[in-house]
Design goal:
Helix content: 25-40%
Order of helices and strands: HHHEEEHHEEHEEHHEHEEE
Number of domains: 2
Number of helices: 9
CATH topology of the largest domain: Chorismate lyase
Distance between the termini: 79 Å
Length: about 260
């Protein structure tokens, strides 16, 4: 009796991606820091180049790998920060004039990391609908925006856009495209101290603009958290709305509360 030749299993993109994920988690590729060449993987999984490409896209969407044209597929090495939101812009760091650094930079330095921020882009523009709502402005009102990109160890980690009512920001250092860090906070120094803050959190997939600004992989699924702080003055009116966009793989948001 003649035996039939054994047919080699043909893997689907999902099966390949899951198998490669298991190998990544076991550290199989740690020494090289990248996946084997395409031709080797096509042969190993008895598949086509297109199916392998779909598998790699799944790995990208899971945040496990990134690719470089003509160089290969590399393991992602992201070391996230712990962002203690309950302490943000509060306490001794903010009020110490000797530090000469804003609260976010100080908190990153305390983690043993290197913080930096791009020069703020300052504009006067019609407030988007949600911003107008948070600042309690009439629809179509103008506001002052200060947009910044925050980096940790040279890598983009957060977008930090602050919005101010015109009457708060005009004719103040907030209109200047530079670091306006001041002991006690810029708003207190220009006569609009924040006496209460409201935090609003929401998660979604990064928009095209957010993907570009944060230098995220355009082929990957990039979940981000939007953290909004609305600051109120002594009269109960909003004086600032700060919108931070934090990629999920780079930021761990922590809240500690005392009993």
């Amino acid at each position: 009796m003649t035996s039939r030749p054994r047919v080699q299993k043909r893997w689907s993109a999902q099966q390949i991606a899951e198998d490669l994920r298991r190998k990544i988690e076991k550290g199989v590729f740690n020494e090289s820091g990248q996946l084997p060449p395409t031709r080797e993987l096509v042969e190993e999984y008895n598949t086509s180049g297109e199916t392998l490409r779909q598998a790699v896209l799944k790995l990208k969407s899971w945040g496990l790998v990134t690719s470089q044209q003509g160089k290969g597929v590399f393991l992602r090495a992201i070391d996230p920060i712990e962002w203690h939101v309950h302490d943000f812009e509060r306490g001794e760091r903010r009020d110490d004039p000797s530090r000469g650094v804003d609260d976010w930079k100080a908190s990153i330095e305390e983690l043993g990391r290197v913080p930096s921020q791009d020069t703020p882009k300052v504009t006067v523009e019609e407030a988007p609908e949600e911003i107008a709502e948070w600042l309690e402005l009439e629809p179509g009102s103008f506001a002052v925006a200060r947009r910044r990109l925050r980096r940790v160890d040279g890598v983009p980690f957060q977008l930090a856009d602050s919005w101010f009512p015109m009457e708060v920001a005009m004719n103040s250092p907030l209109m200047e495209p530079r670091d306006v860090t001041m002991a006690g906070g810029i708003l207190a120094n220009i006569g609009h101290p924040q006496v209460r803050r409201r935090h609003i959190l929401r998660s979604w997939l990064a928009t095209e603009e957010e993907t570009n600004r944060l230098d995220l992989d355009p082929d990957a699924t990039n979940p981000v958290t939007r953290h909004v702080i609305v600051g109120y003055g002594a009269d109960g009116k909003p004086v600032r709305c700060m919108v931070t966009i934090a990629p999920g793989d780079r930021n761990v948001l922590i809240y500690d509360f005392k009993e």
